[in-house]
Amino acid sequence: MSSQPAHPALLIPGPIEFDDAVLQSMGHYSESHVGAGFVATFGETLSLLRLLFQTTNPASQPFVISGSGTLGWDLVAANLVEPGENALVLSTGYFGDGFADCLRAYGANVTKLDGPVGGRPQLPDMVTALQEKKYKVLTVTHVDTSTGVLSELKSLAAAVKKVSPETLVIVDGVCSVACEELAFDEWGLDGVVTASQKAIGCPAGLSISMFSGRSIEAVKNRKTEPATYFASMRRWLPTNNPAVMQNYEAKKPSYFATPSPQLIHALNTALKQIMARPLAERFQKHIEVSDRVKKTVTDLGLEIVASKPEDQSHAMTAIYLPEKIAIPDLLPRLLNKGIIFAGGIHKEIGTKYVRFGHMGVTAVDPSRHDVDNALKALQDALAECGYKKA
Known about the structure:
three-stranded antiparallel β-sheet; 2 domains; single chain; alpha/beta; seven-stranded mixed β-sheet; 39% helix; Aspartate Aminotransferase, domain 1
């Protein structure tokens, strides 16, 4: 049984439910961020991230910096693109649009390809755009939590390498890392940014990313200084001072900005749990749970926002509400049954759907019944709202 106080199951697209051992790691006594004990834990954590991202290339560089997933956008926009350079953004919803806005904030010349609501931009359109002009970076949201749309990365990255090999392929993996297959080296990715509070299963507060050697060289070869201080990768990998992230991974004390020792301990525990089993097994479990959720939802006569099976995330499901049932009608009834879903946030359909997150321990821990309880609660709450399947 869980040692956590009784509480509604948090089944939104993140933060997610956390394992007891992860939360207990947060209770670690206070320690110096340059002390031998903490430095050893941080170094081990960075090495575990290489396993999670599936990279063995020594030129690849993991970063763990205090901040939210959004900080990953800033790392990309401030460091990899200089003002006036071109960025191609493949958007599948709210978070793709946000990445584009962040790139513009640092002076990038942004071209955005939008998928239809519940769909994704098509590869031929991307190829055409890459042939029309040179892009420094291409960004894609692996799972956009506003729509539950999954982007297919392997063929996308291969197409970029064929048409525009100099373009850096950057992935927003905030809602995909640790639940959707992602092979950094094999697929030739140049950057993946994520966060601690989703499928990785650690409380919010850490920006986690992996960058390729090509990306690090792009940072070193910039003609202009990045228009940021804290988010400057040069300051985390300075050429004339101790290289903070490399030193931590080598278990040597270093300093640029103070990390959160308690969150790093929690992340270390979460990563050890993840890597205790083959990643392929973890990905398959998320697929199985997702398939069960989506079958139950469609059997209820409801529509999924991501309409094509190949476009559907295995981390979450965005569900259109029946006509005459509104978000304020449904969510309180779910809460009364111990289940928390999220409302919609997509600008075109925000009032028409809800979002069900099923990742991390919710999906992989067989002792939990979060998904079964949520599906039963959804069926009962809809009935209370007067819904009958057509």
